[in-house]
Design brief:
single chain, about 425 residues, two-stranded antiparallel ribbon, acyltransferase, Thiolase_N, Thiolase-like_sf_Thiolase
Length: about 425
Amino acid sequence: MQRVKQLAAHLSGSSSGLAALEVKRPDDVVITMAIRSPLCKAKKGGFKDARTDELMLEMFNKVIAHSGVEPKAIGDICVGTVLTSDPGYLARAAMLAAGFPESVSVQIINRFCSSGLMAVTTVANQVRSGQIEIGLAIGIENMSENPDKGGPTFSELISCNAAARDCQQRMGWTSENVAVEFNVTREEQDAYAAESFKRAEEAQKRGYFEKEIVPFTVLQKTPGSDKRVPVVVKEDDGIRYGTTQEKLSKIKSAFPQWGNGTTTGGNASQITDGAAAVLVMTRREAERRGLPILAKHVTTAVAGCPPRIMGIGPVFAIPLALKNAGLEMKDVDIFEINEAFASQCVYCAKELQIPMDKLNVNGGAIAFGHPLDESFSVLPESKEADLPGISTLHWGTADCHWSQRAAPSAGQGKLS
């Protein structure tokens, strides 16, 4: 009955906008842990020799070590992954091998690059509805082992539809379509990419990412041998120091056969291996356990867009998320838009009128790489201040979070 009353209070509109976000309720859906692996260049970086099930196992091991929650207390696990073959088998086996009891369940979700955000949304909604008290969301992609081979061949009954036929096209084609249709120049794309690299380099040099990265122990081949030995990987290895717009301007087009050929290996995201995990529970449960509250999950919005320009999804999803949360653009301090391609980021920022000092403030996927559905976060930039923020993926999924400062003495979330 108490839960029904609280849900009714949420729906009654008794408070709105930022004021509503500041209200602390026992049934708030909060995030108490947000960790990730280093992001490593596919085929070349720290995880190049690791199997997908091994990366899953290590992610589950790190969850047990850092969550502050006994494995049996987790009500459900949702793993987002896109390219992994037989992911249900791998996730179930890896969680059991890590020490989760058989009584804990796991599910798989695939909404392409939004899969990680949807994993968070799935467990958040389970907590919000009272189905579970604690949920674990994981996003993982091993692009060294599972490269993106593009879309499948469709039946003629489907491919006779133009929009359906577009679903078979390569992502580079969609980037060039965005650049042409919305007049995004090569210069704008290179300038955006250079800024992403600059911000990521500065953040890495000052040790910013050390608070969210957990070192991963993986197996790597020794030089000149197929023998694999354990190696500890501690930091992202894809950030190219000293990248400038001038240097980027000299890179040849990656897709000269499409559009104006403005997309390059320098202004698009790298293919990358990585994993991340988020623990979600009610505020009541977090306070009972004395766990730090990093953020409150407010809402999620999804929106479709034409497949031929799939990268502009945030233009549709962000306004929906704001509407759901009772917010306006001016209320949001931090935006994260996944940088699959600079073309779509430049357009989205322009169309939504997002100031650059609020967008991807520590760099994005162009600098770090894009392990498809590991590209979700809890807005780490805003963890140290009381900032409302939005994470989006180019397919059209937006998560709205209200981040909370951790009080150093009690370790509890605090809104000032």
